[in-house]
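Lab channel / #folding
Pinned by the channel admin:
"Please post every new chain as: sequence first, then the structure tokens as a reply. Keep commentary short and put observations after the output so the thread stays searchable."

First post following the new format, from NK:
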Amino acid sequence: QNNPVKRLSVVESMVEELNRNMEEMCKAEQLHRDGKLPKRICHCDTKVNNMMFDADGNILCVIDLDTVMPSYVFSDYGDFLRTGANFTAEDDPNLANVGFNMDIFKAFTKGYLTSAGAFLTPIEREHLPFAAKLFPFMQCVRFLTDYINGDVYYKIKYPEHNLDRAKNQLALFNSVCLHEEEMKNFIAENSK
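Reply from TO:
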């Protein structure tokens, strides 16, 4: 509504696309309000660069714990895939490089189900593909909002940096959507 630096006209088609998907992307909140989705203690910034490794590649510890709070398992699962399963960096302006890496998805999900499968509810397990879509969508909204507001939150390296980030994350969201059935089938096969 405010459009403080008059950039909205540049991104109207992106805003329209986000608005078309908004209701579905609010599904976790609705499931929680309906008493079907629990909140758990989550890291809420799960990415490889928040893990420390030894020289042999073994995980030593998780860092950046100031983000730990009650959330949905979707947060830790989905955000890791957002950063780990994109073929490129989140600010790569070349959208031809963006895509959802199903090999990373399968390896991560298999490990995730091996450990977290002991406590995941059927609703959580069923909605893991949703989580993989949710986090690029959310990050697109965050980058786009910052771009529209004049780049006041995220540090930028050049004037269109947040816009490039937003386009990248929207492209990743769309790529994840193309793999939704394959993800569901993989999770079903590995949940037995």
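NK: The helical segments are 12-25, 27-33, 73-84, 102-116, 122-126, 128-149, 161-178, 180-189.
TO: also worth noting, The chain has a mean pLDDT of 95.
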